[in-house]
């Protein structure tokens, strides 16, 4: 059948991330398969503020204005000797020396338990392969029920759209006037026209539900940040409160899961793990306890919503028009020796060795993250200082809006929460939880093998065949949640961040332990939130903000041709440069108030430049890193020094020379 080969090409690498051949799929991995399929079908959504670089010739002119010796002199005059300048690398190296005193030991019993889990998974896979071989060789007809057919067609439709669109998102554009994403209906329709007529209605229904409804008219920042707050506010706009909306959505998600269980029986176990069900139950009752749970819960909401679409009556009424020839598909699978290759792959897998590999990786990552933390006392102290930064940020932000919006921006910043990194104990528990989940998944695979129907077994095999299944090791080891969790443990120092729509600022242990720099970093994150909020205001209410944004953007010497900007506009570096400028204004406000820690604070740029214990690195230059939205550490130090009014003569000479040469404005 001609259509079959098309499926194999279009689905390769799309569905394969989540499925292991065991006559079933691992718990929760069917959900991740759907996520990846949607991402591939959507393509690369336009990014208004990332990427881009600079004109190399223009950058060369700027660098020629300053000698390396002058840069070194500037750094020493502002940050002191490299021996005493505690930047991000030297602090990390110093704290890592604590590893000799701090030891994190994962019990040997955990290695043995993990090996047994991997052994169980491969044993189930082997038995299921043998069962499918026997079933196909018998020539027995396999009837695919309406529910299973709907599920497979949903994935196949996404894959078909990915193929005809080339994974390209040209049909989605950025509306700068409204700061939203917009679907070009003509381009979208043209893509659908490339499909065979009998597929168009189904593919459109799937893509509308999975992509178009989540993109068209949505705030760019809401889409790119994908926060729980943004998701809930969009779905429950009337009298929105986070806690009530979370409970309502979680209750609905659990009801959808129960409906799916009734439709597909034991296959529903492949949609959620036991831990994910517990997260939904907590969200529906007492709420979520941390950012990790919130991120997991958001993905569950989105995927359960889509799986609910699969089983809606209106979708199932049109799904039969989609051409799927299962007889030919199963015949091709048998002829390809796919099952024999799977058996060989299983036989070559060594559970004991792979368990030792996984646990060794986790032990190394855990040990490296041990010193990268802050004590409860330091956290409490920093939380008090954070409130001072909040109040100063409110004062500075109100200067950038009309009087009628002053109370609004004050209230917006009052809502911001500060989120600390996980403690050592929480990190270890997270790793242990992943080990438990792997065992749960293996036991579910065993249960599915014992009680699953012939239909379920063959459908799982067919999906794996269509996706050119990755190796057992890739799925059970390299792409395991355990390895991902361990690799995500803290390994950097300045990891402070904010997703403006989320209402949270993530505070790193670096900022907590070194508030003389950390307060400015926190103010920088407030700057991103202020920028996000004020860009959405009518022009008449954000005149001062737009003026400041223009100045900050156009004083960057790497912008070769400054142009007037609207509030929604960006250069490559303007968003980060604005946040730096806002941070400096907040620190100035704290100093005016006589804040003791602000008086001790350093130029934040000192923590961003590279130095070894005895020297500043020659890599400290003015030119930014290609495709980085941040200006270089040296340039940030210079611009913040100007905004703080703390430029030393050595640094002032450099900045004056650059700004005079390019007639750059001064934003004071």
Highlighted features:
mainly alpha; disordered N terminus; 31 helices; 63% helix; 668 residues; 2 domains; three-stranded mixed sheet; two-stranded antiparallel sheet
Major pleated sheet? 3 strands, mixed
Number of helices: 31
Inertia-based shape: globular
- Measured as a percent range, the helix fraction is 55-70%
- Portion in strands: under 5%
Instruction: State the secondary-structure class.
Output: mainly alpha
Report what the structure shows.
- The chain has 668 residues and is an all-alpha fold.
- It folds into 2 domains: 2-48 and 106-235 and 289-369 and 423-469, no CATH class; 375-420 and 514-662, no CATH class.
- Helix content is 63%, strand content 3%.
- The chain is built from 31 helices and 5 strands.
- It has helices at 2-11, 29-42, 56-64, 68-79, 88-96, 108-137, 146-165, 185-193, 197-215, 220-225, 228-235, 242-264, 274-285, 291-310, 313-316, 326-335, 338-347, 351-369, 376-398, 403-414, 424-451, 454-466, 472-478, 481-487, 509-513, 515-534, 543-555, 574-592, 596-600, 633-644, 649-662; strands spanning 172-175, 180-183, 417-420, 497-499, 504-507.
- It has a 3-stranded mixed beta sheet with strand order 3-5-4. It has a two-stranded antiparallel ribbon with strand order 1-2.
- The protein starts with a helix and ends in a 6-residue tail after the last helix.
- Mean pLDDT is 80; it is low at 1-29 and 47-52.
Summarize the structure.
The chain is mostly helical.
Q: How is the secondary structure organized here?
A:
Elements: H1 2-11, H2 29-42, H3 56-64, H4 68-79, H5 88-96, H6 108-137, H7 146-165, E1 172-175, E2 180-183, H8 185-193, H9 197-215, H10 220-225, H11 228-235, H12 242-264, H13 274-285, H14 291-310, H15 313-316, H16 326-335, H17 338-347, H18 351-369, H19 376-398, H20 403-414, E3 417-420, H21 424-451, H22 454-466, H23 472-478, H24 481-487, E4 497-499, E5 504-507, H25 509-513, H26 515-534, H27 543-555, H28 574-592, H29 596-600, H30 633-644, H31 649-662
Parallel strand pairs: 3-5
Antiparallel strand pairs: 1-2, 4-5
Helix pairs in contact: 1-7, 2-7, 2-14, 4-31, 6-17, 6-18, 6-21, 6-22, 7-9, 12-13, 12-14, 13-14, 18-24, 19-20, 19-26, 19-28, 21-24, 26-28, 27-28, 28-30, 30-31
């Amino acid at each position: 059948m001609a259509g079959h080969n098309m499926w194999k090409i279009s689905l390769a690498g799309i569905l394969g991330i989540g499925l292991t051949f065991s006559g079933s799929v691992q718990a929760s991995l069917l959900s991740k398969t759907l996520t990846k399929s949607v991402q591939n079908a959507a393509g690369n959504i336009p990014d208004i503020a990332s990427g881009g670089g600079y004109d190399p010739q223009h950058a060369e002119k700027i660098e020629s204005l300053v000698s390396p010796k002058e840069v070194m002199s500037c750094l020493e005059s502002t940050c002191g000797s490299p021996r005493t300048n505690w930047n991000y690398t030297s602090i990390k190296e110093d704290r890592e020396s604590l590893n000799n005193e701090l030891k994190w030991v994962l019990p040997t019993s955990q290695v043995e338990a993990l090996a047994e889990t991997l052994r169980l998974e491969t044993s189930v896979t082997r038995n299921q392969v043998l069962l499918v071989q026997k079933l196909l060789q018998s020539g027995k007809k396999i009837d695919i029920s309406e529910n299973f057919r709907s599920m497979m067609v949903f994935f196949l439709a996404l894959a078909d759209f990915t193929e005809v669109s080339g994974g390209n998102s040209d049909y989605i554009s950025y509306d700068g006037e409204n700061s939203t994403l917009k679907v070009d209906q003509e381009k979208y329709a043209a893509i659908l026209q490339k499909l065979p007529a009998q597929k168009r209605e189904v593919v459109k229904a799937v893509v509308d539900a999975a992509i178009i409804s989540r993109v068209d008219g949505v705030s760019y920042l809401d889409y790119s940040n994908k926060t729980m707050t943004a998701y809930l506010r969009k779905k429950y706009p009337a009298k929105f409160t986070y806690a009530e909306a979370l409970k309502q959505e979680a209750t609905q998600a659990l009801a959808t899961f129960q409906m799916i269980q009734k439709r597909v029986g034991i296959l529903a176990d492949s949609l959620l793990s036991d831990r994910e069900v517990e997260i939904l139950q907590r969200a529906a009752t007492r709420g979520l306890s941390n950012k990790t749970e919130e991120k997991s819960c958001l993905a569950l909401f989105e995927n359960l919503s889509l799986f609910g679409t699969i089983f809606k009556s209106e979708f199932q009424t049109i799904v039969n028009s989609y051409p799927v020839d299962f007889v030919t598909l199963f015949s091709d699978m048998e002829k390809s020796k796919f099952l024999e290759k799977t058996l060989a792959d299983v036989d070559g897998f060594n559970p004991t060795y792979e368990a030792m590999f996984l646990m060794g990786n986790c032990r190394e990552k855990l040990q490296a993250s041990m010193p990268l933390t802050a004590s409860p006392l330091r956290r409490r102290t920093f939380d008090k200082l954070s409130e001072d930064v909040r109040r100063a940020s409110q004062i500075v932000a109100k200067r950038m809006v009309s009087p009628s919006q002053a109370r609004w921006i004050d209230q917006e910043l009052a809502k911001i929460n500060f989120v600390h990194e996980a403690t050592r104990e929480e990190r270890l528990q997270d790793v242990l939880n992943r080990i438990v989940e792997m065992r749960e998944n293996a036991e579910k695979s065993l249960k599915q093998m014992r009680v699953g129907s012939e239909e379920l077994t063959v459908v799982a095999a067919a999906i794996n065949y269509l996706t050119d299944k990755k190796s057992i090791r890739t799925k059970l080891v390299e792409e395991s949640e355990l390895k991902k969790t361990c690799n995500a443990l803290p390994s950097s120092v300045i990891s402070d961040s904010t997703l403006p729509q989320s209402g949270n600022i993530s505070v790193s242990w670096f900022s907590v332990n070194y508030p003389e720099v950390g307060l400015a970093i926190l103010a920088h994150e407030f700057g991103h939130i202020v920028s996000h909020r004020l860009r959405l205001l009518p022009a008449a209410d954000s005149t001062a903000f737009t003026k400041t944004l223009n100045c900050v953007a156009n004083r960057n010497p790497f912008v070769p041709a400054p142009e007037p900007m609207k509030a929604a506009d960006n250069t490559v570096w303007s968003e980060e440069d604005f946040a730096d400028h806002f941070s400096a204004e907040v620190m100035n406000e704290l100093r005016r108030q006589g804040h003791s820690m602000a008086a001790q604070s350093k130029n934040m740029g000192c923590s961003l430049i590279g130095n070894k214990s005895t020297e500043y690195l020659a890599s400290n230059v003015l030119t930014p890193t290609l495709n980085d939205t941040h200006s270089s550490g040296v340039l940030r130090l210079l611009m913040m020094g100007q905004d703080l009014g703390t430029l030393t003569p050595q640094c002032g000479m450099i900045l004056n020379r650059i700004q005079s040469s390019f007639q750059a404005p001064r934003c004071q």
